Amino acid sequence: MGPAVDSRERIVDAAAKVLSARGVDGVRYVDVADAAGVSVGAVQHYFRTLRELIAEAFRSFNQAWLREGMALLDGQSDPAARLSALLSLCTEPPEGWSFQGSWSVWLEFWSSSLHDPELWGRNRGVSRTWRRAFTDVIEDGMASGRFAPAPADDVVDRLIAQADGLAIRGLLEPSRMPPKRIRRLLLVAAEREVGVPLPAEPHPVAKQ
């Protein structure tokens, strides 16, 4: 990785941390530069507008989260174990992030997308990939007879909606709704949906 690429990535990562802490409206070039350890001019060299920087910060954060999450599914063949792994992503933040910090990024993204269709358009692929992962697991489980039959789309929508809702409660009331409780509630909800017990923790994937 060259110095230019490394510098740009540090700037984008820093922007994600700043918007997580201060919200989209609180992102300033000087704060991102300080967090990245570069000059304001360096930030502006890569991103002429804050809008471009914020959009790239969302994209980079979401892609990194998806890469880590999809890696949990590699080598998992049992639908119950795969579903448990997917649910764990709702409470286990990406490397270098806290639960509060990571979900704050997503909440800012959703809020900003309501008023910026272009932002949503540039990042909607992440939501589609996330939903597709759930759909594949649910459909595989039903096709194999492992999960109880039901409209897969309805099951997926209910599970994702519950995950999003509980995470927001976790942001607002962290002492009452810590990540461990959120995961437990999600497991209970998912078990009711699919009709079988799920592993309390994702099965570890054997290293090659």
Summary tags:
208 residues; mainly alpha; Tetracycline Repressor, domain 2; 9 helices; 72% helix; 0% strand; elongated
Q: Nutshell version of this structure?
A:
With 208 residues, the chain is mainly α. Helices cover 72% and strands 0% of the residues.
Textual characterization of the structure:
- With 208 residues, the protein is an all-alpha fold.
- It has a domain at 58-194: Tetracycline Repressor, domain 2.
- The protein is built from 9 helices and no strands.
- The chain has helices spanning 3-22, 29-36, 40-46, 50-73, 79-88, 99-115, 117-143, 152-172, 179-194.
- Helix 7 packs across helix 8 (152-172).
- The longest helix is centred in the middle third of the chain and has 27 residues, at 117-143.
- It is elongated and about 60 Å long.
- The two termini are 26 Å apart.
Cα(first) to Cα(last) distance is: 26 Å
Q: Structural class per helix/strand content?
A: mainly alpha
Unreliable spans:
none
CATH fold label of the domain at 58-194: Tetracycline Repressor, domain 2
CATH class of the domain at 58-194: Mainly Alpha
Share of helical residues: over 70%
